TrEMBL record:
This is MYB transcription factor. InterPro entries: Homeodomain-like_sf, Myb_dom, Papain-like_cys_pep_sf, Peptidase_C48_C, SANT/Myb. Belongs to the peptidase C48 family. Residues 1-57 form the Myb-like domain. It comes from Helianthus annuus. One of its GO terms (biological process) is proteolysis. It is found in: Chromosome; Nucleus, Nucleolus. It holds the Pfam family Peptidase_C48. It comes from the Eukaryota. Its main location: nucleus. One of its GO terms (molecular function) is deSUMOylase activity.
Length: 329
């Protein structure tokens, strides 16, 4: 017989709600490591928190649905139409996605699937987690020619999440130092915040901050620009970059590092609430293939990153070529 699961206490449930409100759904490691909540969970794992949160959201959705039916449909049909249970299950699943991936820092902004919108079985099936994104990047990286890879390096998506916890900052910065990012033209760094994937690109960090030929700058690619995440992310990202310069004992004027250009190109946007991870992978592929040897932001860089940077047909074709077996179960 399998190991019997322990029942959740009211104190644990309250701590889970408070942790999600503070850090967002999906940040189970961060919640468990937060001293505010750590003592409330009795040897719970990331999986325990994830499963409990899923059950809580499903229960809340069922209760909301039942309440709506009582008000709007007092006379219930004894024999529901064929397949109605499947349609209801699909609707609950979509509503659950809205609850789980809700932006808790700005609750009114959510990404809702358009009714009747076409689903591609590859792109829109589900969101990618950090392990999957890292595995796909490693696989994608092997496909790039060596001369391209010499100008680039990439960082693990989990590092930014771990950096957000004070006790992990020095460890994460030491890992980044081993990547020797100041000797590379571009540093590719996918990050996830509020259940949404972004792509950070650090450009020419090894160059002089006053260089006009190779301008050090930060690019943030966001497939959900209407949510205006960049304004909330920018202060934390700038602090992260400043910590990197300090940890590497760079001699650059810190006031100039704080003023480093932070650019948010208008890139093609996601078509549903699960596509952001796949778009980040496609952004990486196209950027590595297209980035110039040098650039100046006074010339309007990044000039090739626009709303029509690529077609969705190209994105769909790319997703179909991904090797889904490269992710360990």
């Amino acid at each position: 017989m399998g190991k019997q699961k322990r029942k959740w206490t009211n104190n644990e449930v309250e701590a889970l709600h408070a942790g999600v409100k503070k850090h967002g759904a999906g940040k189970w490691t961060l919640i468990l490591s937060d001293s505010q909540f750590a003592s409330s969970f009795d040897n719970r794992s990331n999986v325990d928190l994830k499963d409990k949160w899923r059950n809580l959201t499903r229960r809340a959705i069922r209760e909301q649905s039942n309440n709506r039916e009582k008000v709007t449909n007092p006379r219930r049909c004894k024999h529901p139409p064929p397949h109605s249970s499947k349609k209801r299950r699909r609707k609950v699943d979509e509503e659950e996605e809205l609850v789980v991936f809700k932006d808790y820092h700005k609750p009114r902004i959510t990404t809702r699937l358009r009714r009747g919108a076409h689903r591609n079985t590859v792109n829109q099936a589900r969101k990618l987690d950090s392990k999957e994104v890292q595995s796909y990047i490693e696989n994608l990286w092997r496909s790039f020619p060596e001369d391209k890879k010499n100008s680039f390096t990439h960082l693990d998506p989990l590092w930014y999440t771990w950096y957000s916890c004070d006790s992990n900052k020095q460890k994460v910065l030491s890992w980044i130092k081993k990547k020797d990012i100041f000797s590379r033209k571009y540093v590719i760094f996918p990050i996830v915040q509020w259940g949404h994937w972004f792509l950070l690109i650090f450009c020419h960090f090894g160059e002089s901050l006053g260089s006009e030929l190779r301008t050090p700058c930060i690019l943030l690619l966001d497939s959900l620009a209407k949510a205006d995440h960049s304004k909330r992310l920018e202060p934390a990202i700038r602090k992260f970059v400043l910590d990197i310069y300090s940890y590497f004992e760079r001699t650059e004027d810190k006031s100039l590092v704080r003023k480093m250009p932070f650019l948010v190109p208008k890139v093609p946007q996601q078509r549903d609430n699960a596509e952001c991870g796949f778009l980040v992978l496609y952004y990486i592929k196209l950027f590595v293939e297209s980035a110039p040897e040098s650039f100046s932001i006074t010339d309007g860089y990044p000039y090739f990153m626009k709303k029509d940077w690529f077609s969705y047909q190209g994105l769909d074709s790319f997703c179909k070529t991904l090797d889904f077996t490269c992710v360990d179960p």
